[in-house]
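Re-run requested by the PI after the first attempt was lost when the workstation crashed. Everything re-entered from the original request form. Ligand of interest: adenosine monophosphate.
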Amino acid sequence: MQTYKAKRVEITIENVMESRLTDALRGAGVTGYSVLPVLGGSGRSGAWSRSGQVSRAQGMVQVVCIIKPERLDALLDAAFEVVERHIGVVSVVDCDVLRAERF
Amino acid sequence: MQTYKAKRVEITIENVMESRLTDALRGAGVTGYSVLPVLGGSGRSGAWSRSGQVSRAQGMVQVVCIIKPERLDALLDAAFEVVERHIGVVSVVDCDVLRAERF
Amino acid sequence: MQTYKAKRVEITIENVMESRLTDALRGAGVTGYSVLPVLGGSGRSGAWSRSGQVSRAQGMVQVVCIIKPERLDALLDAAFEVVERHIGVVSVVDCDVLRAERF
Amino acid sequence: MSEFLSLAGQNLLSPIILSFALGLMASLARSDLNVPEAVAKGMSIYLLFAIGFKGGASVASYGLDARLGFSLLAGVILSALLPIIAFGLLKAMTGMNRLDAAAVAAHYGSISIVTFVAATSVLEGRGIPSEGYMVAVAAAMEAPAILSALWLISRSDGDSGKGMDSALMREIMLNGSIVLLVGAFAIGWITGEEGLKEIESFIVNPFKGVLCLFLLDMGLVAGRGLRGGGGVLTRGVLAFGVLMPLVGSLIGLGAGMLLGLSPGGVVLMMVLSASASYIAVPAAMRVALPEANPSLYLTLSLGVTFPFNLTIGIPLYVGIAMAVTGG
Amino acid sequence: MSEFLSLAGQNLLSPIILSFALGLMASLARSDLNVPEAVAKGMSIYLLFAIGFKGGASVASYGLDARLGFSLLAGVILSALLPIIAFGLLKAMTGMNRLDAAAVAAHYGSISIVTFVAATSVLEGRGIPSEGYMVAVAAAMEAPAILSALWLISRSDGDSGKGMDSALMREIMLNGSIVLLVGAFAIGWITGEEGLKEIESFIVNPFKGVLCLFLLDMGLVAGRGLRGGGGVLTRGVLAFGVLMPLVGSLIGLGAGMLLGLSPGGVVLMMVLSASASYIAVPAAMRVALPEANPSLYLTLSLGVTFPFNLTIGIPLYVGIAMAVTGG
Amino acid sequence: MSEFLSLAGQNLLSPIILSFALGLMASLARSDLNVPEAVAKGMSIYLLFAIGFKGGASVASYGLDARLGFSLLAGVILSALLPIIAFGLLKAMTGMNRLDAAAVAAHYGSISIVTFVAATSVLEGRGIPSEGYMVAVAAAMEAPAILSALWLISRSDGDSGKGMDSALMREIMLNGSIVLLVGAFAIGWITGEEGLKEIESFIVNPFKGVLCLFLLDMGLVAGRGLRGGGGVLTRGVLAFGVLMPLVGSLIGLGAGMLLGLSPGGVVLMMVLSASASYIAVPAAMRVALPEANPSLYLTLSLGVTFPFNLTIGIPLYVGIAMAVTGG
Ligand SMILES: Nc1ncnc2c1ncn2[C@@H]1O[C@H](COP(=O)(O)O)[C@@H](O)[C@H]1O
Ligand SMILES: Nc1ncnc2c1ncn2[C@@H]1O[C@H](COP(=O)(O)O)[C@@H](O)[C@H]1O
Ligand SMILES: Nc1ncnc2c1ncn2[C@@H]1O[C@H](COP(=O)(O)O)[C@@H](O)[C@H]1O
Ligand code: NA
Ligand code: NA
Ligand code: NA
């Protein structure tokens, strides 16, 4: 099966920043992304868990974005501007995709 | 720790196609997979979100499948047949796994 | 944008083992991880699904952990000790991250 | 006429409709108000169980007349027939391609159980009795429309099996809401008056309140749909979304009269024919006709026809049925 | 006998049992009907809170007799003892290895709170009073069986600490359902009659209806378990799943008589002894004995013994207890 | 005094408070008892809808006096003013940096709707009437505090727009709980007595029971917060968490007297001023002041001030208001 090189970017970010991030991604020409729930975690700012909240102030989500390699820099710049002052993690992996016309 | 080369395939696909995809994967000799929820996303067919539905018509899930490299082609062929007419994304990443006897 | 090499470890493990795993990870010097829900799956021990349970005995979660490459071995040793007798999958992917000081 | 206006006014200012309106406005204003998916699903399980059970218990009380069989049959025929009419209207009124038109048409043959529930609640409020077995008719009308629409497509493509396979067939027939509705109907029938008394303070008393919260969520969802998919609503499409329920209701009226149903039963037959599916059919269309545009059928069904029936349709159908049956 | 048959018939045709049957049939027929995990969890929190609270309030009303202490003690002993009997039966009746047998045995020493709840609802329906503190006995019986089963295994392995560590011990003793049951019992006891009146229309009136929906979900889950794990049910294993609750109930009968409980209390003691855990114990077994086969114990407990107790067991135990105590 | 003590004792031993205590103890003991997020969200939607609706229906019954407008205005002013006082106290009593102090201060200007609900339930239990429109005042007090706190920060930074943008502004004003509370209030007002009767057995009867389960979850969450974030509670911070609600309540008392509210209305004004937000404000702070430490404000608001108000505060405010108004 014919596959194509792409980049898979995963951004773990606070709930409250989700729409700001996806707006920024769209602004950077990203055509598609998926949002996955995160149940809990731990980092420099301590541990948290989705069931330990009454507010949506603390939860996080993972935004996954598969893009053409040449778009990576624009995406990272846009994402960085949003996450800069915030907690969260950005990672990039090389991947192969089917149906390259989609990205 | 001893690790082994493998492929990690992630297929984002509509809820309604989940059982058809996993049937096809089993048919292609895949011995294991996990299904992760997706909260929302955006693509060529517009944006959607899990809380914006009364029906299961629109939601998506992510099927993750770790396999031996030599099985990749059979898996992709099987997956492609299911997703072909449908929306969704297929990506493949190189990975290392513990306990190779499991795959 | 400046990125740094890192490892992304994903451990799919039973609910009941989650706190034991994260304790072990912390013991191995891991500073951060995220826990993602898993809806269902299939493996050598059969198929399962989150909605097919009254008990938390069967569910699984995915613990994702991004670390500096030099910490990988300690992490895998710690994780292996927990998953050894249990079902579950451990995979490692090479990735690039922003903000290396966080890992 | 003035009676209809007063009924309509009364209906529009009920907690049920206002809850829907609140949801609609909140999501159009882009508030982050939302009902968790699991809670919405839980409420819909409650509503299906309650409405099915009460229907069955009422059949147990008032006995079964021979009309049940005929009514079920009528439901199946209506469900299969309405998509063909809808398809014709769509080709005449809109520029939709055959695929989209067939997918939309399927929704209008099938039914919206929440519209049905809202109608029973209006009937109860006005003290108009209806046949308990109408919930079974509702269940019978869910699926045939899908087959009908797929037949419409396959006819033109010359590919008779297109889209439909046995797995999909089973999924449609055994879809959760049909099974729950029919199952609860059977339980209500078997346990009767006495069974109802045991669980009355769960399925009867709080029913209307749960319906309010459920409609709040429906309003939120409809609003989100309109915000995202509103672009597909050309004038013709919009007109179809209002005309088709009226056409459906008149055909339902005829069927109800032919069957000799009570005035309340006639209303419910009209409502079932007028309403459009937004659960079972969209899911089936995603599997069978993935190339059809879901924005079109979801926006029409949930964003146009559902609110139309809820606000104007139901009091109108009640008014017409009362006038015609002299009830 | 004829009284038992009529009771059994009545029980089988109650909304509660029929809801379970509906769920079971729906999932065996592979319908996609399902109750979201969060909703099922929410209902179980409701049931535990309500049953605990009502038990406590009843203790507050009728006073506490000296039997509470003895009953708790009896519960602990039964829970620790029954696994040993179960283990013996399993070795005799089935070809199970020691590990699987011990894991299964643990389930039968512990209890199923939903079976208990269903039994109290049958007792209430028949107007048979019972001791309010039986919910405390239920809580006391959850955990000892686990220790007992781990001891069975360690004895043969000569490795006394196997599987059990202090974290697991804490998880078992402070597991959510024990804490909620005991806590609600305490709240009911402290606030008494008056507290009950304040929240009666939440925890008393809709109780049976919620139980119906919860059992619908249990049926769905049991059916899925049977579909996936039915293969493990050899004839011997199946026979154990029916025999063991009978054996347990007779031992419970003896304990209840010895303690001098009321007829209703005797029934509940029988039910607790006869029922098998499917929440706390499976989770503990996954941690402590991961090599044991979960299909075996889940299918037996949830797919065989639970439906057996719900349908045949409870009316049988009521019949026996009434006959023996002359209640 | 002795009356206050008896009221406090009575309050402490109510099912509501004991449910909170159960949750708190369970999570401090690290039990795995937990309420699914979706269920907690569902209960909070229920509570907001019910309290809003009942407030509106009561306005419809008893008519609207001119005080509504003044009360809303007073609410806005209190909400904007209290953060400035809180900020001053924090600088005096603790070593907090300006950013953390402003973030904490915002919480104390805004309100906790569950504290408000608990207070109305205490008032009802004692037969003390209050103005139905106090729920609208509650809604009005949610947001101004945030602007006030951001102004405090920008003043010192000389950067007037810091943290606030129009998207955040919209999110705050249209946040789900404000929209639901105000919307339900409007529905209750429009449909009045009659609307209330239709859904009474959903929003009135089971209300207190749902509140118990919701507070159980609040206890669990507060306990988890204390376990994780307890370290931030220096003596000064802790003292602030108890002193600030007292200060707030007295200012609320003054406002209530000035407005000429009924004794019950004065109590609610005190409660609103005394309570601290843990939903809307934390979310806004994460967006606008991400560098402020969330452990600080969440632990204070949810782990200290909320339990204080629930247990000691409410009966104290009732006692004071009764004494002062002679009600
Ligand atoms: N190394 C990591 N790997 C995976 N997730 C992480 C990592 N570090 C942080 N996170 C996630 O990001 C959240 C915030 O991290 P932090 O900014 O370090 O407090 C954590 O609670 C985790 O959910
Ligand atoms: N580039 C992408 N990266 C991640 N997820 C995507 C991407 N494109 C599409 N998706 C997901 O797949 C769904 C359907 O995509 P599409 O077929 O482009 O409409 C979207 O709503 C996303 O959830
Ligand atoms: N190859 C695989 N790829 C992804 N997930 C897997 C794989 N194998 C097992 N799993 C997950 O791990 C669980 C237990 O696997 P097993 O130990 O093989 O029964 C499965 O139910 C899946 O959720
Ligand atoms: Na229809
Ligand atoms: Na037992
Ligand atoms: Na305040």
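Saved to the shared folder this time. Chain C has a mean pLDDT of 91.
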